[in-house]
Amino acid sequence: MNYAVQIKDAELQLRIYIQPKASRDEIVGMHGDALKIAITAPPVDGKANAHLCKYLAKQCGVPKSKVAITKGQLNRHKTVVVCAPAVIPEAIQALLNE
């Protein structure tokens, strides 16, 4: 079982390691025991967090209001919850199937 990615009570729970100021937004893969996501936004004034939520909302086909950072607001390691995702991105689905 992969603890970085779980589905519980119709919520997608992600343990993320974020890489801000990347050249493009993408789900990179595993980084230790967390899912690494690269985003283009800088880690300034909550921009990286906002961008991460927007990116995950788009990937999962839900409004931004359905994505919440529940842990690690000021940290590269975060816990993010996506409520009732319409779509599960391929990279995350592959981890769920492990």
Automatic annotation (TrEMBL):
Top-level taxon of origin: Bacteria
Record's protein name: UPF0235 protein GAGA_2150
Assigned protein family: Belongs to the UPF0235 family.
Any Pfam family: DUF167
